[in-house]
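During the no-cost extension, the postdoctoral fellow (Dr. R.K.) reprocessed legacy sequence entries with the updated structure-token encoder. One reprocessed record is reproduced below for audit purposes.
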Amino acid sequence: MGRRCLRVSRKMALRGLKVIDCATLFAGPLAATVLGDFGADVVKVEHPKGDPARSHGYAKDGVGLWWKMLGRNKRCVTLNLSTPEGQRIFRELAREADVVIESFRPGTFERWGLTYEVLSRENPGLILARVTGFGQKGPYKNRPGFGTLAESMSGFAHVTGQPDGPPTLPPFGLADGIAALATACAILIALRAREATGRGQVVDLAIIEPILTMLGPQPTVYDQLGIVQQRSGNRSVNNAPRNTYRTRDGRWVAISTSAQNVAERVMKLVGHPEFIQESWFATGRGRAEHADELDEVVSRWIAERTQDEVIKEFEKAGAAVAPIYDISDIMRDPQYQALESITTVDDPELGPVKMQNVLFRLSETPGEIRWPGPKLGEHNREVYAALGLDERDLKELSAKGVV
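Re-encoded structure tokens follow.
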């Protein structure tokens, strides 16, 4: 899995697709990672100082661990796009590319002479994916844009947390991750359109939008009923019982009763079938309005049993339950092991490294992790040689701060 082999299996769906990833941090680069996992030739263009993701989060012996996952399946080159020579080299790279992914503040690519009009003049089939916090237009377009701001402005933080507590942000890049998947999807849609028209186009993705879509019907509910959803902790406004519950051995489980028949099974299991006869129990919304009553009997039953006992009894009853896992639990879980959700990749700096596998399984064109995140500028010679630059050229460009 971790061999430094640039050959791509003929069975990989995106074999032959050439992608330039000059985005920074997470949303744009993760979209490129997804494409690379399924065979795209991704060239990561970084400033000579390196992408900030290389030093983000935990490190071992000075080697950034997040980068190993984010930079996998990418060939890494350095290039200073703020210099005229860097811009010229970038245009040469883009001339042969199918996709360019960038995440600079709106107007930056234009200031560098790298507009879509310029890039597409010699490559009319190019897809330019622009991933920014607030999109390419509007009053906020020039604001710094990070996932945290999207989680705040999308309504996510407002509905997350306990009713009497503050709005709560996720402790990881949720909005960036959702935006990355949306970007990868948008690129594939644009490529499909290119098959029909022969022309590329610009993808304008604002990180504030995909996470808003994930929040469900809130805009429609507000439009039609004037209701603003409030924080409800781990409860749902749409059904109950739905919460996290502590077991006798101090561990936790979560249950969901989105389906009516599952809600009925839960109440029978915990010894209170009489609730099922209540008129309000017949709808998820009605059950949510009586969440205190339902949680009381469910939590009492769960508190009398260990986590293993609770899961065993729920499974026997055909009710939905899951343990609350930390990452150590995930690494040991037999279902994740059966799916090979966590895989081991050989890394020349760290040795064997475990990380998330490719996102999904395809029966005929599976994805693959061919190598983890490379060193800064590791592929300069290889990539730039294809543009006619030799060792002496690279030394001169390095001395000028271009690569």
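The two ends are 30 Å apart (CA to CA). Residues 1-5 have pLDDT under 50 and may be disordered. The remaining legacy entries will be reprocessed before the final report is submitted.
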